Amino acid sequence: LLTKSEVSALLSSDKDDLFPNASHLYTQQGDVIAEKYAQAKGDDLFNPNDPTTLYDVAQAHLSLNDNYKLTHADYAEVAKELKCEPEILQAIAEVESGKEAFDVHGRLEIRFEPTHFSSDETHPELSSGTSHYGPERNYKIFEKAYQVDPEAALEACSWGKFQLMGENYSHLGFSSPQEMVKTMAQGEKAQLPAFKKFLQHKGLEQALQEKDWGKIASGYNGKHYKDRHIKPGQKTYDQKLKEKYDEIKKRENN
């Protein structure tokens, strides 16, 4: 395995020449680390075109990066500031992106929101329709939008573990959506301060303290959360939060 200092050096290297299009902004350097590790070890079995191999090797080495994975203690620190239970914050994260902030290719989890993207009339497919394309389709659409208007494309996506919209960058303490995405690509821990600021920006402290799932859902997912992409029999966002919170509490007590 690489040492922590070696991982740190790789993570801080310039990626502009390594990734096409916008991917130098949003790609965790796990794939770079994996390839460099394989080259250094002379591992002929390593296949950089195999997402599973890439992911496994990258995860092993990125785990040495202090910024990479969030722990319960990290959530507890933010929860103390917000005066709420850390499990509530974890529930939001897991409902938003499952348990991962990055996909199997080392890319930030995203959802491209067409209705948040403004483009000229020659690209109607980029500013209409729904966001439910699936992971690969999301990135294909995003890359097309990025070629038309980079800043607008970055703002029209929700990013990372907490699925924060790029258009909120200024409320989250960033000078640009580019800075926001680059910061989030450093790891899960780098995304946590923005999550806290978003909750504060939305004035959700009391709702979090009272476990008012409806108010949390409305503030985080929009006031029309009960009507958004809900099929018969599906749970609404507030119900998902409550269910996930109960699941996490049960998990921790076992």
Defining traits:
single chain; three-stranded antiparallel β-sheet; 254 residues; 3 strands; mainly alpha
Q: What features would you describe in this structure?
A:
- 52% of the residues lie in helices and 3% in strands.
- The chain contains 13 helices and 3 strands.
- A 3-stranded antiparallel sheet has the order 1-2-3.
- The chain starts with a helix and ends with a helix.
* Helix and strand element order: HHHHHHEHHEEHHHHH
Spatial order of strands in the largest sheet: 1-2-3
Let me know the average pLDDT: 78
Query: pLDDT under 50 segments (min length 5)?
Result: 14-21
Major beta-sheet overview? 3 strands, antiparallel
Give the tally of β-strands: 3
Q: Could you give the distance between the termini?
A: 32 Å
Anisotropy-based shape = globular
What is the element layout, followed by pairings?
Elements: H1 4-11, H2 23-26, H3 30-41, H4 51-62, H5 72-82, H6 86-97, E1 110-112, H7 135-148, H8 150-155, E2 157-159, E3 164-165, H9 177-184, H10 188-201, H11 205-210, H12 213-221, H13 237-253
Antiparallel strand pairs: 1-2, 2-3
Helix pairs in contact: 3-4, 5-6, 5-10, 6-13, 12-13
Short summary of the structure?
With 254 residues, the chain is mainly alpha-helical.
